[in-house]
Queue: 2 jobs
Job 1
Amino acid sequence: MTEKQQALLKSAQTLIASHGFSAVSTAKIAAHAGVSEALIFRHFKSKKGLASAVLSAGERARSEMIYGRLNDPDPTQVLRSFTAIQLNVLNDSESVLAWVAMIRITRENPESRTIDAFVLERLRWAISSVGHGAEEAVARTAIEILERSILLAFRGDEESSLMLLRGLRELLINE
């Protein structure tokens, strides 16, 4: 990816994370990046093409921040680590920005949402192992709560974010 493509991607992530996908025009993204709007269309073909690049970057960031936490052989530790992600994740603001932008796009365009198969499977395993039924539904709900928590923390509402995760941990592992 060229420097200008990276600048456009970073600007798109910043603006989408803060304002949402629909509220941000290609002109605003280009101005924020300090380039011409034509470069968006040259490099990404359309706003949708740029959104696709934002989604891909967000998926990579999400994977980097979650995967290592899900490899423990103890299912309770997997769930404990999963519900503690937000506490540690805000230290890497660039990855958080990519993940938040991805979340904002998928909230506005649910057809673009993907659930990471590895994350879903590890959560299903851990949830089932600690005795919960309906592990698919519980795992999907846990992912949704984590994403809501990250959005709240990104917006500066750390207290509500932490309360969501504490509640999730209580429901999952009674802690």
Job 2
Amino acid sequence: FDKPAEIEFDDNYIYLEKENKRIELNKIIGIKKNLILYESQGIQSKLKLPNFHFMDKKWTELKERIKNKKH
């Protein structure tokens, strides 16, 4: 994926603005600042996110949803 300028998400998916693609939250392997590791069709993939200050609140909320999805 290209770096999206913004992301949206709900309890099940992360939605990427370009290409209308989505990533299932339960497919996420790991999450770090500006990087999401996930499994796609049995292959580990990366999603790099831009380092935008306005995303900080969303990033915190997204990490919490991913953490809660794994439990």
